[in-house]
Amino acid sequence: MSAAPKIDAGLYDCRDTFARTMESLAEADERIVVVVNDSVGSSKLGGFKKRWPERTINVGIAEQNMVGVGAGLANGGKIPFVSCASCFLTGRALEQVKADVAYSNTNVKLCGQSPGIAYGELGPTHHSIEDLAWLRPLTNLLTIVPSDPEEMEAALRFAAAYEGPVFVRVSRYPVPAVPHTRVGVEPGKAEVLRAGDDVAILAHGVMLSRALAAADRLAAEGVSARVVNMAWMNPLDVGAVIDAAGTGAVVTVEEASVRGGLGGAVAETLALNRPVPMEMVGFPGFVPTGSVDFLFEHFGLTAAGISAAALKAISRKRQ
Questions:
Q1: Tens digits of residue pLDDT in 153-212
Q2: Has this prediction a pTM greater than 0.90?
Q3: 60-74 per-position pLDDT tens digit
Q4: What burial class does residue 73 get, using C-beta atoms within 10 Å of its C-beta: 0-12 exposed, 13-18 middle, 19+ buried?
Q5: How many helices (H) and strands (E) does the chain have?
Q6: Is residue 202 domain-shared with residue 93, that is, in the same domain?
Q7: Which CATH number goes with the domain that contains 312?
Q8: 212 shares a domain with 150
Q9: Strands 225-229 and 250-257, how do they pair?
Q10: Distance between CA 76 and CA 95 in Å, rounded?
């Protein structure tokens, strides 16, 4: 995999990887097309449009129509990548995602751009913290939350080759590269990035590197923290969650609502299989307007906040 452009020292915008990988995939397969809602710029697909204007379908600000067009193209033998801000793709077009894509098991690739609170200053209308909770119950819709450029490229290449619907969450917030232990992605398979016996931190997306930083902080305090990359939301690696419970305490970390997101999914699994003390780091409800950095700090989505949640979970298992 080729290196992604750096935003800052050691930080990357996964949308750059998305754009570059889409061009690479289109070069190799003429069936690949992109469908957007006036989001060529925000999806960083300007280069794709310049090279293949006939394979770039811009439906305007009409997200429900956009998903329907994608489904029609798939039924016609194309491989459509439907790209749009995640808040609008999953909010405005949820019925079409459910009926035209998931229920129909249509070969559409949904790309939720700038999810979570990437549009911080634009407020709750543009926050996309509910998307994972909305999509997780949809049968057939494989859902992945990549953590860095390497995993982003792997997810897109998997999606292009897979015969069926896939949702890829394309983060906007700059992230460092994560030291992965595997090459590529396999549906429903978590990745243990760091061993640990005192507590398990389950994270994905832009929070994965922060979970690793939290594990470093905990190690300095004599706490052994396991870090697990839970990139796949659907299917969820139930076995990895149960194994994580073997540490006696679990923390989930996500740039999303804990109500039905990763926290909700893990809580369901533990309640049915191996209950242990658990803490959820994420958003408890609607998030106010503010910069991304401010909101992460305010809600504890930092290395310090994650390590504090881990210590709290550990204290509960000793009660």
A1: 999 999 999 999 999 999 999 999 999 999 999 999 999 999 999 999 999 999 999 999
A2: yes
A3: 999 999 999 999 999
A4: buried
A5: 12, 14
A6: no
A7: 3.40.50.920
A8: no
A9: unpaired
A10: 21
